[in-house]
Specification:
Number of helices: 3
Strand content: 35-45%
Shape: elongated
Helix content: 10-25%
Radius of gyration: 15 Å
Strand order of the largest sheet: 1-2-3-5-4
Number of domains: 1
Distance between the termini: 8 Å
């Protein structure tokens, strides 16, 4: 197993998200590959935590990347945050991402968690995805 494809996967996911005009139109706070500084207002997306599991086999090295994409919104209710999460859930699974290191075999939605944070003022939805990478 190699973690070399971790940065390549993050870069490809980020580029895929920022290239989607309907998603960008929903997210007034932007799409970030690192936590946004301070506590920005509006709604934004952050690429988050990642766990990697060795999936090497007789055909060669491989890994399963389990990563999170988080939506944070100070809009009242969960409606906007769920619209953003829904768009990401539509465009990311099965995306044909080209990686600078390794080859993406497939990308799946795994689970989601929606909750209120910061004393209830912010809605947060964490989307978890699984990506199988060879090489």
């Amino acid at each position: 197993m190699s973690y070399m494809s971790g940065a390549a996967l993050q870069a490809a996911v980020y580029q895929h998200l920022v290239a989607d005009a309907p998603l960008v139109a929903l997210v007034d706070g932007g799409i970030h590959d690192a936590p946004a500084p301070g506590t920005p207002s509006g709604s934004y997306v952050v690429l988050g935590a990642e766990d990697v599991i060795d999936r090497s086999d007789v055909s060669g090295p491989g890994a399963e990347h389990r990563f999170m994409v988080s939506i944070l919104s100070d809009a009242p209710g969960f409606q906007l945050a769920k619209e953003i999460a829904g768009r990401i859930g539509l465009i990311l699974p099965g995306a044909d991402l080209v990686l600078s290191e390794g080859r993406l075999v497939d990308l799946w939605f795994h689970q989601a968690q929606a909750r209120r944070v910061e004393g209830g003022a912010v809605r947060r939805i964490d989307l978890r995805f699984r990506a199988r990478i060879e090489g």
